[in-house]
Amino acid sequence: MERNYSGLKFFSLLWGILYVVAGLIQVGKGVGLLPVSFLSSSLLPAELAGGLVLVVIGAVFFVAIFEFSKDSFEGSAYAYVGILLCLVFGILYFLSMVADLINAYILAMEGYEEWTFVDSFKPALYLGILSGVVYAVWKNRFKPVNQGGF
Amino acid sequence: MAEKIKVAVAGNPNVGKTTIFNALTGSRQKVGNWPGVTVEKKVGTKNHNGHVLEIIDLPGTYSLTAYSADEVVARDYILEEKPDVVVQVLDSTNLERNLYLTTQLLEMGTNLILALNMSDRAERRGDFIDIQRLESLLGVSAIKTVAGEGKGIDALLDSIVAKKEQNIPLPHEIGYGGMVEEKIYALEEIIKDDPEVFKHYPPRWIALKLLEGDEDVIKKLSSESIKGKVQDFLSAIDNEEYEVEMADKRYQFISTLMPQVCTTCAEEVSPSDMVDKVVTNKYLGIPIFLILMWGMFELTFAFATPFMELIDMFFGWLAAAVASNIETAWLASLLGDGIIAGVGSVLLFVPNIFILFFVIALFESSGYMARAAFIMDKLMYTMGLQGKSFIPMLMGFGCSVPAIMATRTLEDEKDRLITMMVTPFMSCGARLPVYILLAGTFFGRQAGSVIFGLYVLGILVAIVSAKLFRIFLARGKPSPFIMELPPYTKPLLKDSLRHMWNEGYLYLRKVGTVIITGVVLIWMLAYFPQGAEYGSAGSLIGSLGKLIEPLVAPLGFDWKIAVALVFGFVAKEIVVGSLGTLYGTGGGEALSSALMSDPGFTPAIALGLMVFTLLYVPCIGAVAVIKKETGSWKWMFFQAAYSTAVAWVLALVTVLVANLVL
After folding, report:
1. CATH number corresponding to B2-164
2. Chain B residues bordering chain A (beta-carbon distance below 8 Å)
3. What share of chain B in percent tops pLDDT 90?
4. Which of A20, A91, B265, B538 is geometrically suited to a Cys-Cys bond with B532, CB 3.0 to 4.6 A?
């Protein structure tokens, strides 16, 4: 069964760029190459490890584009796993936000006096939410298919 | 008397090989062991059209490279006994995977018949296998069989007899490309001067196996000088690289063949295949593994904080209630400063332990942990261990005691000894409270990353130590890693929760026994002699600390840290309880504040202490298990001394570097 991958190709390219750029900005801020206030200190925080996570996810999408460019259906596998990783880390950052919310508003913990939602609204979270929407719309594209195996 | 025809039945495991063998031989079978090994040997005879067939059932194998006893037995039988006909049984519903063994049998130059078993299932699925095309492309005979119903067995017997009449074909050659072919040619040139080898084995096959680094084949060379030349030649190349390249070419050959013999039976690409394709990718596999591990520790730290706060509030309230309601000073101190503060400071980390084990259970039950071992295999092998060693090491993230016991699954004694020696470097759950306290206090929002870094450091020290042990203590090569990856499954919440509870319960039980005993002992040492200030330098614990302080003073650690580390030998959790006692604060935020306000306790010292806690002698339980499993006091003392020395050196480096950077 032939499938049209043009939508997935465009998505992989866009997501690859978004994740790698956001990741590199976070890494740059984390190691002091960029000022913390660059673009937005809250939406793109200085976070070395978190930035590297985004770069790795972006790399998965770039490999998807590379595979698609060879006319290989394997690109869809990379796009699929890329989305899964976006969702995993989106959930992780969502749970962190819930924990911060409890710390700030229910337990009134020290260090959380100034906390707002935006402090926890990091790229992995908002891009993860968008990825969830994309997955919900496109999940049939990742259903098993006879493609000759890997 | 009719001529005897020797027939070997080969095939992957679970393809119906034994059913075919039973159908071919009926009741005339003998079962024993292959000479020198415990692999089962089944031999049967069959009279067919005036011929006597001696049929031998070879062990089930995926390939004929000398990795396991089964493969060596199967391969050596074909090479040494030279059966007249080899029948390879294939699962028709999984042709692509089974053809890998076919390529190896063809390369050995066997007189091959393919029994395409379970053909009824393949047909029901809508697959059509073009037998004639398969025969002509591979130069073999092929018969469709349904062994359970006896279908195709007579045709198979006819084919065996007919095949015997034909000349044995020349070995089938797969083109491996310029780089590999050049080396094959060079090796053939070297071994052509060994007439014994040329007489018995296909020279190209010998060259292929030598290039793959098959040591079993080197032994087959009869001349010492040729052996020397071959070893010189091989020492200049990376066998693994060639092995991978050759396996790739065989699979390419199969993927070219498949669409020509069956246009309908291409394997379905499942989500499990898609995930595997990516997570086992040569370049992306390890980074994906690392980010998932980082995510696990980030979640462990971030999501547990509200629960920790609640526990801290509860113990704070309890300690205050005891202090205000018990008038006997020593009893109030024992309960408040000793038991409540000590146990509270350890129970504080129960949420972290539960979350960590829940996530590990999710990884295990989904099938990802098996991939982690697979991904790490190459790195592990390079450093002197096999991928299978990674499983006890991963278990070491939970507790070193069962992890050391799990090394029993390793067949090779040297692999096992090395794995036992390095497993305690994997950061067990008991060390987590120390990291959470110190990283949380000194590194704020970066705490999760710092903890992740410590776990990675543990893995690196384990791997580097394994390399050193392989060079100096247990020379030789690690056994190759053979493991079938289970399909991914949706992790069951109930099972993961049960696993979480079981591991968490062990932690709680330890709090109720070892840790209470430990904190009471620390309280007594801190309380006495009477008149001395509780936990001060004038108390018994202060004297003990001052005595051992010089050992850790170069690292910047004071007597309080020295005492905490000594008690940490009983159980690593006590490090936190000891600090709580010695700072007179119990656990939680009060201890964090006390540590931060201590000018001798800088972020660099905290980092050094975390590194030391990660690496120094494991707890008494783990040390006892090492003694039991190695059966040797020598190895037990060696592990304790080596790990403490490594901890000392790396903690010193950490403190020095951190002083410059932080």
Report:
1. 3.40.50.300
2. 96, 255, 258-259, 266-271, 273-275, 277-279, 281, 284, 287-288, 290-292, 294-295, 298-299, 302-306, 309-310, 313, 444, 446, 448-449, 452, 589
3. 19
4. B538
Query: Are B570 and B619 within 8 A, CB to CB?
Result: yes
State the Cα–Cα distance between residues B126 and B273, nearest whole angstrom: 21
- The beta-carbon neighbor of B306 closest among A78, A85, A102 is A102
3-state helix, strand, coil in chain A (%, to 5): 70, 0, 30
Q: Which residues of B touch A81 (CB under 8 A)?
A: 274-275, 277-279
Chain-chain contact of A81 with B449 (C-beta, under 8 angstroms) = no
Paired residues of A115 in beta bridges = none
Flag whether residue A78 sits within 8 Å of chain B, measured between CB atoms.
yes
For residue B284, give the nearest of A60, A145, A149 by CB distance.
A60
Identical fold at B2-164 and B176-259? no
> Cis peptide leading into B529, omega within 30 of 0?
yes
A107 at B interface, C-beta within 8 A = yes
Contact call for residues B206 and B66 (beta carbons, < 8 A): no
Q: Do A57 and B281 touch (CB under 8 A)?
A: no
Structure tokens, B35: 């000479």
Nearest to B295 among A89, A107, A111 (CB): A89
Distance CA B540, CA B523 (A): 10
What's the number of CA atoms in the CB half-sphere (13 Å) around residue B250?
Answer: 21
Highest mean pLDDT among A139-148, B64-73, B294-303, B371-380: B294-303
At B396, the amino acid letter reads G
pLDDT of residue A1: 45
Inter-axis angle of helices B447-472 and B368-382, to 10 degrees? 50
Give residue limits of the domains in chain A: 3-136
Phi-psi group of B115: left, alpha or beta (phi > 0 → left; psi -120 to 50 → alpha; rest → beta): beta
10 Å CB burial of residue B341 (0-12, 13-18, 19+) is buried
Residues in contact with B511: Cβ distance below 8 Å, sequence separation at least 6, in sequence order = B343, B346, B347, B573
CA B159, CA B20: separation in Å to the nearest integer?
14
What pLDDT digit, counting tens, does each position of B628-653 carry?
Answer: 888 888 999 999 999 999 999 999 99
Which CATH architecture group holds B176-259? Orthogonal Bundle (1.10)
Token look-up 């190695």 returns B630
Instruction: Select from A81, A105, A119 the residue whose CB has the most chain B CBs within 10 Å, as the one to mutate to test that interface.
Output: A81
DSSP label at residue B49: T
Strands B268-269, A145-146: parallel, antiparallel or unpaired by DSSP? Answer: antiparallel
| Residue of chain A nearest B248, judged by CA positions | A150
Per-residue pLDDT tens over the stretch A104-139? 998 888 778 888 888 888 899 999 999 999 988 887
Secondary element (H or E) of residue B6: strand B4-11
Q: Do A81 and B278 touch (CB under 8 A)?
A: yes
Domain boundaries of chain B, sorted by first residue: 2-164, 176-259, 269-365
B549 vs B227: which has the higher pLDDT: B549
Q: Which residues contact B246 (CB under 8 A, 6 or more apart)?
A: B176, B180, B208, B211, B212
Per the CB < 8 A criterion, the answer to whether A99 and B305 are in contact is yes
pLDDT at B339 over 90: no
Looking at mean pLDDT, say which of B68-77, B296-305, B629-638 comes out highest.
B629-638
Read off the pTM.
Answer: 0.64
CB contact under 8 A, A60 and B271: no
Alpha-carbon distance of B289 to B302, in angstroms, equals 20
- At B228-263, the pLDDT tens digits run 888 888 888 877 778 878 888 888 888 788 888 886
B367 marked as part of a ligand binding site: no
Amino acid at B456: V
Neighboring chain B residues of A52 at a CB cutoff of 8 Å: 291
